[in-house]
Design goal:
The protein has 2 helices and 4 strands; from the N terminus they run H-H-E-E-E-E. The protein is of the alpha+beta class.
Length: 137
């Protein structure tokens, strides 16, 4: 008799709470799912932002490194010209066109007594080109 009375009072209290305008007890599950979905979206967005930031940083580093490689090529040609003013040709270093390498070419310039130098530097997937004209005496 006690157990029968207890069960009927529980069912009446649940039914009564829905009729009285109180929220049903299942709302906690919906709130938890909503919060979980917000946290998931926020986490995915944060990871994507970090990935984009790393990619931009890598591109910036490779851009600068390729410039330094091309500059090294120009200086290598200048060293060759200091040793022999009549030298013209191509110098490579680092297994060009692999990453971390350069190729520099020296040709007789259009003006008398000048040498045109063109150097390509490679870092990762980035290639930079430098051109210089030097006066040799």
């Amino acid at each position: 008799m006690v157990s029968k009375m207890r069960n009927s009072s529980i069912s009446r209290s649940i039914a009564g709470s829905a009729r009285n305008g109180r929220r049903p007890r299942g709302i906690a599950l919906l709130v938890c799912l909503f919060v979980l979905s917000l946290v998931t979206v926020w986490t995915v967005d944060m990871l994507e932002s970090a990935s984009v930031y790393q990619s931009a940083l890598r591109n910036s580093i490779e851009y600068e490194q390729s410039l330094y490689q091309a500059n090294a090529g120009v200086h290598h040609v200048l060293a060759q010209l200091e040793a022999d003013l009549f030298w013209r040709g191509t110098i490579t270093a680092g297994g060009y066109p692999a990453s971390g390498s350069y190729s520099a070419t020296a040709v007789t310039g259009s003006a008398p007594g000048t040498v045109d130098i063109t150097s390509n530097g490679v870092a990762g997937a980035t290639t930079r080109r430098l051109s210089a004209t030097v006066l040799v005496n």
